[in-house]
Amino acid sequence: PTAAEFAWEELRPAILGPGFKPDEFFTAQLAMDARETPEAAAARFTALRAEVVRQLKAEPGIVGVTLTEFDPFAERGVVVEIEKARESVGFTQVDSTFFDVFGIPLLAGRGFEPGDPNGGAIVVNRSFVNRVMAGGNPLGRTVRVVNQNDRNGPMAVYEIVGLVDNQFPQSDQATMYRPLAPAAAVPEAGA
Questions:
Q1: Rounded Cα–Cα distance for residues 119 and 180 (Å)
Q2: pLDDT (tens digit, 9 = 90+) per residue, 6-43?
Q3: In whole angstroms, what separates CA 47 from the centre of its chain?
Q4: pTM given for the model
């Protein structure tokens, strides 16, 4: 089953399409040469990212702007643990406008709030609840992300604060979303 699941995840977008009108979306990746201290690079990256968002919002015809760590269907895979059961799921960081821009309805709980990026709040999708939690109420439940380098090592701990519908109707990808940190994806100095 694992090989079949992997093959489906890789082929699904090509077979079913992305689940949205690609000609209505613009995707860009921001990469910088970090020859400064990590703090200076983070500050410059955050300022540049804010300016790019400001300019995009000012463009005629742009109806929404959102930031994510990964493109749709390209989330990083992680192993999570809930009540001793382990499951592989998609995991990505998104900003507070992500669900609105993609038209993903909030089904229960809340979206992200300003204090969340430094905390352990996550939002999960319907497939996550169905596959990982057997359809139970996810709100307030604790999710641990297994350390990929040491499966018995320390785990990052998150609390589920919201439930959203699946991003794309044809997708059954179990996904958890974390608030995008202000300097997420900043390259390390010298990289």
A1: 11
A2: 666 666 555 555 555 666 777 777 666 667 777 787 78
A3: 21
A4: 0.76
